[in-house]
Design goal:
The protein is an all-alpha fold. The protein is about 85% helix and about 0% strand. About 0% of the residues are buried.
Amino acid sequence: MPTPNYSFEKRQRELAKKKKKEEKDAKKRAERDAARTDTGTEDAPADTPE
């Protein structure tokens, strides 16, 4: 019976955790950019009629 490769298992868990964190950060960044562009388009016409 082969022995478990704990290093490989740990590395796989770390990679999964990193991928999940990156996806979460990307989602947050996309929401923040969407909110910024929504407010940015509303502010731009208000500033131009000077």
